[in-house]
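4.2 Preliminary Data

To establish feasibility before requesting continued support, the project team ran the inverse folding procedure on a target of 485 residues. The structure was first converted into the token representation described in Section 3, and no sequence information of any kind was made available to the design step. The complete token record follows.
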């Protein structure tokens, strides 16, 4: 177990005004509550809403023995974790009740790490799930895009395919998670008829495998008169693929694009550092200026402000993390496609760029996630180095709120589009094709001097989940390498 609170007690007391030294004694933690001890102490130190959770108060327990007694009240670390969160969705499920909608804990950090890097076990069909009607009982799914070299690709599953059942069982709010959790299942398809979901007798059996997703899904140039429009569909802020992202911008730059359409409609987020770099790729003229500012809990804010305030700032850059020079476009305007699945780091790019350039958002309102997380392991520094060999638990708690240069970050209800255009599940179109409705709206906005595209009346369906949020990370935005600050 970690000795973090043993060999740094005085520093932590001065820097963070943490609980008494007696509560920091991990030598007196019985093995059977060691994971619970890790959960409490990690959240006590880093959790954004630590001050709002009485059981995480620095003076809540008089000593380690007192804390141990409390920890014995939870047989599962997951149960303790949920009890220590600030109104989590699991305990406050009704709309508008929850405050913490995103913090998660994993019993195996390998799964967590895979998700954060774009490696998951799936069948290659990325989909959204929607309620059929206002009763919010029956559910249907819409395939949004297909992973290359996946089972779905091999079996010719297409964007726009609609499914109403799995293994012949109609999807509902209560059963969708268990049905879609199986490694192999049969999708039962339906026809979209003016908003009605009608079974058509067709189906396909799909099997999951471990796939790594290159988030640079499409990258092309559209010529329209004097305009050379770059189109980039980017599906995840994964640091391991930043060189591929930079290469995509190099291709667009070499072809002399005059405008850029950035498609983030299914991008639920990822690394704050990668978001900063893509914003720097779009621009290039703001190097070393503030892109975004982080706001942590009070004791960490005090610590960072007293030791190195610059650690709270994310600055525009001209380099990747590996020192590769960015192929920046130096644009003063960008067109961004969004849906209700656009979240966290995607919203950060939009919000962070707005004080600097003209951001034209086309599509639907976004998710509304203005907070970020870190990965905490059971080690002396909460990093993976030196983590416990007796278990693989790791937490991904919300630890910060993020705002732009002028201090705006209050968009928990989502970012409103400049041009409202919801996806029509009866006519999703082909991604990258100039007739695809959202891309076509962007092209018209560009060549038509910004004239708005008329909103076609389509039936609106309430979003339930999508492929990414089902993984439990719920549209994550995270900070890398926070231990070295």
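Position-by-position output of the design step:
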């Amino acid at each position: 177990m970690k000795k973090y609170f043993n060999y740094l007690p005085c520093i932590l007391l001065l820097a963070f005004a943490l609980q008494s030294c007696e509560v920091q004694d991990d030598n007196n933690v019985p093995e059977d509550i060691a994971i619970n001890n890790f959960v409490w102490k990690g959240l006590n130190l880093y959790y954004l809403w630590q001050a709002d959770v009485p059981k995480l108060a620095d003076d809540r327990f008089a000593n380690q023995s007192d804390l141990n007694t409390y920890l014995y009240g939870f047989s599962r670390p997951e149960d303790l974790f949920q009890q220590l969160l600030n109104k989590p969705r699991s305990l406050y499920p009704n709309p508008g009740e929850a405050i913490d909608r995103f913090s998660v804990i994993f019993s195996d950090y390998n799964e967590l790490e895979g998700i954060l890097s774009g490696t998951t076990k799936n069948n290659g069909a990325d989909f959204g799930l929607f309620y059929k009607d206002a009763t919010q009982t029956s559910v249907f799914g819409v395939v949004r895009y297909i992973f290359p070299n996946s089972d779905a690709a091999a079996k010719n599953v297409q964007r726009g395919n609609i499914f109403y059942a799995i293994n012949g069982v109609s999807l509902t709010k209560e059963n969708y998670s268990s049905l879609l959790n199986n490694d192999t299942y049969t999708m039962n398809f339906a026809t979209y008829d003016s908003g009605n979901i009608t079974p058509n007798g067709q189906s396909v059996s799909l099997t999951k495998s471990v796939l790594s997703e290159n988030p640079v899904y499409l990258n092309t140039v559209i010529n329209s008169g004097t305009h050379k429009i770059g189109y980039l569909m980017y599906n995840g802020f994964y640091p391991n693929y930043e060189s591929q992202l930079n290469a995509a911008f190099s291709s667009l730059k070499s072809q002399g694009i005059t405008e850029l359409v950035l498609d983030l409609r299914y991008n639920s987020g990822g690394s704050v550092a990668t978001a900063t770099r893509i914003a720097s790729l779009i621009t290039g003229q703001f190097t070393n200026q503030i892109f975004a500012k982080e706001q942590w809990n009070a004791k960490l804010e005090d610590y960072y402000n007293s030791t190195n305030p610059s650690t709270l700032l994310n600055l525009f850059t001209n380099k990747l993390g590996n020192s590769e020079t960015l192929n920046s476009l130096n644009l003063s305007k960008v067109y961004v496609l969004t849906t209700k699945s656009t979240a966290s780091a995607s919203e950060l790019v939009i919000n962070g760029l707005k004080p600097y350039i003209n951001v034209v958002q086309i599509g639907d309102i976004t998710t509304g996630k203005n907070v970020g997380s870190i990965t905490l392991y059971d080690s002396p520094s909460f990093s993976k180095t030196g983590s416990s060999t007796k278990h693989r638990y790791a937490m991904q708690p919300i630890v910060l709120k993020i705002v732009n240069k002028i201090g705006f970050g209050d968009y928990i209800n989502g970012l409103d589009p400049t041009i409202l255009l919801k996806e029509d599940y009866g006519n999703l179109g082909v991604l990258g094709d100039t007739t695809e409705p959202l891309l076509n709206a962007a092209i018209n906005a560009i060549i038509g001097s910004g004239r708005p595209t008329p909103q076609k009346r389509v039936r609106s369906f309430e979003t339930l989940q999508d492929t990414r949020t089902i993984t439990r990370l719920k549209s994550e935005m995270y900070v890398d390498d926070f231990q070295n600050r």
